[in-house]
User: What shape does this take?
Amino acid sequence: MDLKKIAVPVRMLNKLKKKGIHTVEDFLEFEPKKYHKFGEPKTIDYCQPNEYCPVLVKQKYVKKNFSQTTKRSYLLFRFFVDNNENGRAINAFHFEENFNLEKYKQYNGKDLVVCGRIKLMDDGSKVIDDICSINELSEYKPYVHIVYPNVKGVSDEKMAVLREDLLDMQAEIVEPRALRTSNLNLLSYPQALKSLHFPKEGREVLLARQRLIFNDLLYFNLSLKSSMVELPKETTKHFSSWNKTQNFITTLPFPLTKGEGSQQSLLNEIFTDIKKGNRIDMLVQGDVGCGKTIVAVALMMYAAENGYQSVLMAPRDVLAKQHFEEIKEYADKMGFNCVFLGGTLKVSEKKKVLSAIKSGEVDFIVGTHACVAKDVEYHNLATVIVDEEHIFGVEQKEALVQKAKDGAHSLYMSATPIPRTMATVMYGDQKKIRIISKKPAGRLPIDTIGVKNRDKAFARMEKEIASGHQCYVVCPAIEEKDNVDLVSLEEAEKAYRAYFEPKGIRVGIVNGKLKKEEVEKSIDDFTSNTTQILLSTTVIEVGVNVPNSTVMVIEQADRFGLATLHQLRGRVGRNSLQSYCILVCEDENNQRIKVMCETNDGFKIAEADLQQRGTGDLIGTAQSGENKYIDKMLNNPILFQEAEKVADYCLENNLGHFLMNRYEEHLLLESETPKKKRSTINRKRKKEE
Assistant: This one.
């Protein structure tokens, strides 16, 4: 339901829209960012550094101070911690209630329970900061303290009042008999919302998140099944000559892989189907470095040799440019023309490229989603090749479907290991799904280990850099404030620079907050070995290809899903050198870490994930972007399969409309946000996440 309909004040409504909150469901599914469970009170000696702890103290005094660093007033407390006024004393800092000085003065000399974070100072002493509550000992009861993301201009109190009012209005959004077809014991939707905002224990939060993710995956399944388009199996694009294509293959500086699951067997199947007049509609899955691009180039050569154009699209500019540089080299060698078409082109450059495409001067077009924009007119397009198709948006996919309707061959490539059962749901039964499992000769398995601290990682990195090689380091968050439990890029940067830069080793940074030019500069410096270490978030998961890199370090690896870990590891091992992946984690016996250490096969990893994950790892930051449903599918495979069963039942029994309408209402309201303002909102949201 639109928040306007329940008379939310216009000013508050506008503030919520900036957070992407348009409906009642959006508001109630706006998750807390932290939960701190405070149990029975204990003395300071039993509290660990960085632990959120209910501490037994006796108050000596409290006074108001001003911080020159934050430019904010705060309350400074002095507490006795040994239950007597001659024992040890510690300080505590409270920024949130500095206006309540008189209230806290009344606690002088009283026994209290202070709930907050224990911080270890440089001199070894402890202080309490990030205080959540202060209670008299006689009144304290264990509780869960919840911290919500800040909505600028709306107080926590107003958010809380609206939240409590709306919770009582919620009903189940999926027919209960449809839910019963799942093998999961799911919470009802109203229960899930209450457990999300008023949990008594951590398990309640996990079950609540499970239900909300299930709703997303059910919507995803219903959307996929409802929008499957029957495409032509035959084509009007007929190829006859293939001498140049054969010549291209025989003059490659390396042989194609042969046998079952190889480049050669896949090309033989594609060429045979085309000769028969069949339209190619295929998803090709293969690990990073298995040679999918060469298969794509051979198909493009085949089209060009017969007078047709081909387009290869990638979802990110960095990846598209790397494809362009590789394919242009092959095209030039065989006497064909190749151009780049992307959002970074100047207006004059783009006009020139579009004119060449329309006239037929160009054989190969490589670029981003700009390749299916309305202003692109192809001369005689026969082949559309898409890398990581699931990252593209709805409009781009509709444009691709239109090309297929016109008879163009469609080849989709993915290095993301998607189990066949899930790929079939995503793409429909009519699309062929093929796997390239053979790796080129000379590739060594990546040596993967799990470690608890960085010492082994530093030692391995130093050794590899001394041999002229380079290293990646990936962190789960950009800033420390994103989530106190995650290792941030800012925090890691300090540690890595402090260790390596005095040794003359340069460190570069890439993250989603940098401008496009800054990202390109950092990657160019790394590609040229100007910098030897590249620190990044998962922005490098797809699209950075530096064969000289031999070490991938992943901080807090146990916080990532298996699909992401495998993609990140695939950034190394792209040559004949021995490469290493070091998974820094709290628990070396974590099931995902063990799977990563046992195999390099992405499809075995995907199947193991499917078998062991159960309802999935529901802890971590929220996903965003066009591919958020794919992310949730890969991170919650069993949940996805159960959602598919429920979707089938809903479609067979004409159910599920209420759920679909709620999601579509959100999309409609979001689309009504002015475009310029919406792009700003999206940029801010990405920074916050």
